[in-house]
Amino acid sequence: MTSRNPSIETIGIVGTGAMGRGIAQLAALAGLTVRLYDTNPAAIGAARDYLADTFAKLTAKGKLDQARSLAALSSVAGAHTIADLADCDLVVEAIVEKLDVKQALFRELETVVSDRCILASNTSSLSITAIAAACTDPSRVAGYHFFNPVPLMKVVEVIDGLRSAPATGDALMALARRLGHMPVRAKDMPGFIVNHAGRGMNTEGLRVAGEGVASFVDIDRIMREQAGFRLGPFELLDLTALDVSHPVMESIYHQFYEEPRFTPSPITGTRLAGGLIGRKTGEGFYRYEDGKQQVPPEAATPTELPRSVWISKRYPAAHDAVAQLVDNAGVALDEGATPGPHSLIVVTPFGHDATTAAVDEALDATRVVAIDALFPLATAKRRTLMTTPATGRAARESAHALFAADGVPVTVIRDSTGFVAQRVVATIVNIGCDIAQKQIASPEDIDLAVTLGLGYPRGPLALGDTLGSGTILAILRNIFAVLGDPRYRPSPWLLRRAQLGLSLTQSDALDASDADPTSPTHDTSTENQR
Ligand code: NAI
After folding, report:
1. Exposed (0-12), middle (13-18) or buried (19+): which is 501, by Cβ within 10 Å?
2. What is the reported pTM?
3. pLDDT, tens digit, for every residue of 344-366?
4. How many whole angstroms from 215 Cα to the centroid of ligand 1?
5. b/e per residue, 222-257, with b = 16+ CB within 10 A?
6. 102 near 121, Cβ under 8 Å?
7. Closest residue (by CA) to atom 44 of ligand 1?
8. How far apart are CA 275 and CA 273, in angstroms?
């Protein structure tokens, strides 16, 4: 392996479209010399114009001083041919997403650049190992996966291919920090970290909608207001657009050999075929008028409260939280061992549907309404209720009135194993755990990549810890028990840590850096070679 230049001062960018120009902007502002190359010469000019315009705007806003703006712009030059990239310490490609084209480019670059030059790919879906396989020296190749828009999305995945030298990734990690970005390190596996972790929200949201549990808009409302995400799955799909996200869903599913956790939904294929692609076409899961999302109004809130309420004691903490809401609304609590003949019956299942909860406790299903108590009910911005197929209108409406009595909006859904929030959140946590289990990235990097790359309020592992890994495990086990669908089988990472009472962010004790130096597994002779 040739030693890599630890200091990267001249960067070549091949492909100066949306991603290439964003990377160029970071590099120029960090004081690097930037060379732009594109097979379409007009794209190079357009990128330079874009940079000039961006730097001028930043200067006008007082975010960049005039001298730095001029220096940054003068550090960017167009390259007429690939040979003009000969003096680069690093070349990052952001060209068309085709393996053979990227391989041909890297082969050609190897004939031009020095032995010390790193070759990096911004691919989001191709294998780094496969791209590197075309090179004479695959140790110099790594993934450098930025997100769109590059200057605003502060995370970059550094991906080690099977033959990448650790020093190659190390140099890219150091450069990312110099560019003002947060690097995370990942193994070469489909979807790397962010696009892998992102399977939970969209595929489970689609699964819930596909089961007829709730409308797209209600699922979004629940995920945003009850579970605290910035966007629900359908708003997110409208933003990324189905012509991008549907093929990604299919590709990651197939790359993991039909892993049930990633099963796509026929809903997106049909909508894509019908042209309901997303925000950019004016219609996706929502309609957009003058770019503004049109949201159907919520159903009116009933006002007639129940006479009395019996609450299941199966989950004592949830029982007490519901009892507090009943008391706040001034409704009588039915404290009998079994429900009185006129009481509304409230159950608080975790992972079970309302039907299973009713049958398990031998309750009158016509009066049963379930409430999702995963997130604190007292401070909720939205509460979710669900009914069994036998629940009557009076029970449903009185429960809706009761749990909305303090002004918190309520969404009533049809029966579902794990309501909406429980099953979507449990799926997100479970997939995050499996990324850790597969050693694709460290627990810290998984959570960092997901918070910065997907904008989630917490990473999947921290989210599991906050809600209780035992609770997440129980939700998944109960869904699995009712449906028998391997999609919901818990990851071994979750299973073991929840049972041992360990944090989901904790690696195996033996993997800790201060592992016992006397341990026979601590072999310093191999360490020195790394
Ligand atoms: P783009 O279509 O905006 O730009 C690609 C540019 O590459 C064009 O200017 C094109 O003329 C040029 N090009 C194509 N083949 C070339 C070749 N053989 N040699 C030199 N130049 C060539 O594409 P975009 O969106 O910037 O994406 C580029 C890469 O970044 C793709 O690999 C994509 O998967 C990846 N990526 C894209 C993201 C996005 O949201 N757009 C996010 C993360 C990664």
Report:
1. exposed
2. 0.94
3. 999 999 999 999 999 999 999 99
4. 36
5. bbbbbbbbebbbbbbbbebbbeebbebbebbbebbe
6. yes
7. 124
8. 6
